[in-house]
Model the fold of this input.
Amino acid sequence: MADYRKMWEELGMDLESHDTLCAVLPVAFGDTYLSQENRPENMAFYDFVVSEIHGVRPSELIEHQKKGGKVLGTFCVYVPDEVAVAAGAVVTGLCGGSQFWVPGGEKVLPKNTCSLIKASVGARLDRTCPFFRIADMYIGETTCDGKKKAWEILAEDVPVHVMDLPQMKRPQDYTKWADEIRIFIGVVEKLTGGKVTAESLGAAIRLINNKRRALARVYECRKSEVIPISGKDGLLMTQIAFFDDPARCAEMANKLADELEKRIKDGVSVFPKGTKRILLTGTPLAIPNWKLHHLIETSGAAVVCEEMCTGTRYFEHLVDESQTTLDGQVDALAARYMKNNCACFTPNTGRIDDILRLAREYKADGVINTNLKFCGLYDTESRSVMRALKDAGIPALNIETDYTDTDAEQLRTRIQAFLELLG
Ligand code: SF4
Ligand code: SF4
Done:
C-alpha cells in the first residue's frame, strides 16, 4: 500500500492500532482470495481496491470534501443513496465486518450485541478506520434494537440522522417511508447547501439504477451451469460496491460481466463439473467477512448466490425512472426500498418467497441459512425459513456464527456433513 500515514494522522486516527490491522488484512486476503485458481482477470480491480482499502477511496472522499462536498456514512440498504447523490454528497457504506473492531464496541455496548454493530461502533470510537473518520454525518435507521441504541452512542461523537423505518408493509407504511425520505432530503440539503430537484434526483435515480443493473448482470452469470466466478469473488464485488463511486462501480461490474458472459460461452468454470451449488441466506457479510464463503468453497462446494443485503437485496428492483416530479420520484423511491425484505419487518413472508425463488433461479442444490450471533431478528426468522425450505424439499443447513475464527473447524465439519448429504 502507498504511504497514507499523513492522511490518517490528519484524520485523527490511532496509527499504532491501525498498523496492526494493516498487517493482518493482506495476509487474510492472500490466504482467502489470492489462493484461488483461474479467477476472472477483471477481479484485479477489486484486488487492487482491497490492497489500498484505507488509502485510495478515502483520499477521493477527502478530495471531495476539500472542494466543499460532504460525505454521508450509511449502515443499511434501506437508506436511499439517490437523495444524497442528488444533493451533491457522496455516500460510503460503514458496516464493520472485522473482529478487529469488536472489542472496541464491547467497551460501550453489551457483549450480547451482534458483531456487526459492535465492530461498527468500535471502528469509530477506536479511530482505526478512515471511512468512519471521514464521514461528515452518519445516517442510521430504526431497523433493529441494537442499532437504535448504537446511534445514541455514536451521536455523542459524530452527527447522526436516524431514519424511522416502518416495520410493516401496509399502504400507510409506504406513505410513512416516503415522508421519511422527504425529511432526509431536508437534512441532506441543510448539510450540503445543495438543492434536491426533480432533475438532480432523476439523474441520481438513473445513476444508482445503472449500478444495480451492472451488479445484476454479474449475478445473472452466477445462475449458469458453468460457474464463471467463485462465490468469494462475487461477494467481494458486492462488498466493494458499498464504498465505491457508483459510476465506476457500474463500469467495473459491467466489465466483469462481459468477461463472465464470455467465460460461460467458452465453458470456462472455476469449479469442476458437478460441484454442489449453495445459496446463502441470512444476515449481511460486511467486508472483510469472508469466513463462510471460504469455508464452503474450500469444502468442495460453490456459493452461487447470497440472499442478503450484501447480495441480491442490494441490487434487485429498480426505482421507476419515469417520474418527473419530486413527489413522484420520492414515492417511487419509497416503493422500491420497501420491496426489500429484512427480518425487521412483520410479517416477512416476502423473504421466504425470495429464498425459494432464488434457490430455483440459481439452481441451488442446498441452502445455508446463516445468522450472526445475537441477531434476534434473523435468528427467530430462521424457524420459518427452515420450515419453508423443508416443505419445498430443498436441503438446508442452519448455522450461527460471529466474526471470530474459534468456531471455524466446527462449522467446516457441519458444512462438509451437509455437502455429503447433498450427494
Ligand atoms: S439486514 Fe436489515 S438492518 Fe441489516 S442492512 Fe440489511 S436491511 Fe438493514
Ligand atoms: S445483523 Fe441483526 S442485530 Fe445485527 S445490525 Fe443487522 S439486523 Fe441488527
About this structure: The beta strands are 71-74, 90-93, 137-141, 160-163, 276-282, 301-307, 366-372, 396-401. The longest helix spans residues 198-222.
